[in-house]
Design a protein that fits this description.
The chain is mainly alpha-helical. The protein folds into 2 domains: 46 residues, no CATH class; 49 residues. It is 61% helix and 9% strand. It is built from 4 helices and 3 strands, in the order βββαααα. It has a 3-stranded antiparallel β-sheet with strand order 1-2-3, with helices on one face. A hairpin with a 5-residue loop joins strand 2 and strand 3. The protein is elongated and about 60 Å long. The mean pLDDT is 91.
Length: 113
């Protein structure tokens, strides 16, 4: 599915609008705070996906879970490789620094940091 409105989406209270202020959706259910929060969630997700693939943000959205799982698997494999090949030598710490951006990305997804 590639038929979504292109460009960055924005929030106007609990309304979701395009770059030109054209209404795309309105969050109707919940308290005002929940509606605004849900609008923020939708817009954040859409804009993040569109920043990765502006022509097909849905493809990004549908790949988030498998990419997340693949990153966790790759992290574990990389740690095992580094331990097996560099454990006990001076290069161990240098190679373990390769894990930092992976850990930061996973922490952001897990805890929102």
């Amino acid at each position: 599915m590639n038929d979504c409105t292109k460009g960055r989406w924005k929030i106007d209270h609990h309304h979701i609008v395009d770059e030109n202020g054209r209404s795309l959706a309105k969050v109707l259910d919940g308290t005002f705070e929940e509606r605004v929060g849900n609008a923020h969630l939708i817009v954040s997700a859409v804009n993040a996906c569109a920043s990765v693939n502006p022509e097909n943000p849905m493809a990004v959205a549908e790949s988030i879970e498998p990419i997340y799982e693949a990153l966790k698997y790759a992290r574990a494999e990389l740690i095992e490789f580094i331990a097996d090949n560099y454990g006990g030598c001076d290069l161990f710490d240098i190679h373990m620094k390769q894990i930092i951006p992976i850990d930061e990305a996973l922490a952001k997804a897990d805890k929102g940091v």
